[in-house]
Amino acid sequence: MALINGTDVARDITEQTTKRAYEFEQRTGRKPCLAAVLVGEDPASVTYVKMKRNRSAKAGIESRFVQLPAETTTEQLVAEITKLSEDDGVDGILLQHPVPGHIDERAAFEAIAPGKDVDGVTMHSFAAMAFSEPGFHSATPGGIMRLLEAYDVDLKGKHAAVIGRSPILGKPVAMLLLAKDATVTICHSKTANLDEIVRTADIVVAAVGKPNFITAIKPGAVVIDAGYNEGNVGDVDFDQVADDASLITPVPGGVGPTTIAVLLEQTVSAAIRRSEDM
Predict the structure, then answer these.
(1) In 87-231, which ranges are continuous DSSP H helix?
(2) Among 227, 229, 216, which Cα is nearest to 259's?
């Protein structure tokens, strides 16, 4: 068993991003700008946004923060995001999710202009991933693919099991794996014989949101734990499966750092593309 060190991979991505951000500023006279929108005061979301803003600053990216009260309506949120989409000083937009339950999250996501969807949450971005067209990857799936690439995991012809089918994690990572010639099985809460399927997979991506949910794997499998539950616990029972895995991500220190690194990288890419189109 060997650990996949997401912190090291993220550092490499961020170093290149910082260099590109500096070059962009020298050429245009301004820094790339990422706008973060937060609805309410959920402590975990507040912490995540603060972390992303700090990482942005270190990478030479300007951050703009829009905090809205928890009682904000869907219409009000869509209006705020639309303003950011139309603002020439903003290159990327991040809507911190989940949003309060009374808000139509999909409607809010779709208010993000495709060229500023650096978190890869819109239907446009999903279609680009599914058809291998230019666009932005969902940040966590994009980070997962960078981890597999950094550790030279050959996906061609391999069986990948994705446990979870969310529109911003399970489904897009399945599309990205498929584009690399893996044979992908998407599993979920109603999948029959889930344990048997997982035990046949060469690559396991756990994104189901249940602590210690995966307890057995195929010997030699590569395990990517994209879960993060209370108490720094992933979706994979690390102690149960680590000895059987050839490579495995820890929680924390695995997928999380690369998610933020890809978000920042795509923000700089968005700034560069927008400047070239102006």
Answers:
(1) 105-110, 123-130, 139-150, 170-179, 194-198
(2) 227
Confidence category of residue 44, pLDDT binned at 50, 70, 90: confident
Pick the CATH number of 28-113 from 3.40.50.10860, 3.30.1330.10, 3.20.20.80, 3.30.465.10: 3.40.50.10860
As a residue count, the chain comes to: 278
Identify whether 98 is preceded by a cis peptide bond (ω within 30 of 0): yes
Q: How many CB atoms lie within 10 A of CB 78?
A: 18
52: annotated active-site residue: yes
Within 124-243, strands assigned E span: 159-163, 183-187, 203-206, 222-225
- Lookup: tokens for 171: 């489904």
The residue annotated as part of the active site, out of 31, 96, 117, 202, is 96
For the chain, percent of residues with pLDDT exceeding 70: 100
Binding site for NADP(+): which residues? Answer: 164-166
Active site residue 117: no
**Which amino acids are annotated as binding site, given as ranges?**
164-166
- Counting residues of the chain whose pLDDT is more than 90, the rounded percentage is 95
